[in-house]
Amino acid sequence: MIRTINRRNWLAGAGTLATLTVQPRLLAAVSEPVQSVLKRDFPTAEIQPGRVNIELPALAENGNSVRMKISVDSPMTPTDYVSFIQIIAQANPLPDVARFDLSHANGLAEVETRIRVSAEQDIVVVAGLSDGSLWSGSAHIVVTVAACLDALY
Questions:
Q1: Does residue 57 form part of some domain?
Q2: Is pTM beyond 0.85 here?
């Protein structure tokens, strides 16, 4: 029996494969919008790469609602926990996407949300720990139909 592959099945398979192969990238060279957000929110702090795990599809057909899951390596004890997770999308008109405040009572340092993505870009995530240290990670996403195209007022 010969099986044909239509466009929908091929895209679904390619998207699944891309999701499985996406690797979080370290915060090495970031764009100017991300740098300005980081300088505004963390003016004197040193942001270290690592400890932040990002699940984000490498390819999104529609940027209006992209699922992402973030977890941070932390024991989440009363003395050692993640206090916040901040998402920054460098190519969006407004790069501040979301900030989640956590405490040790959360039990897990995990958040799952949907975000709007305007174009192919790196999504940067910064996590603040209770000891004052900052950790980061980033993941690259390609969007076929962009969101956030409305003019900013």
A1: yes
A2: no
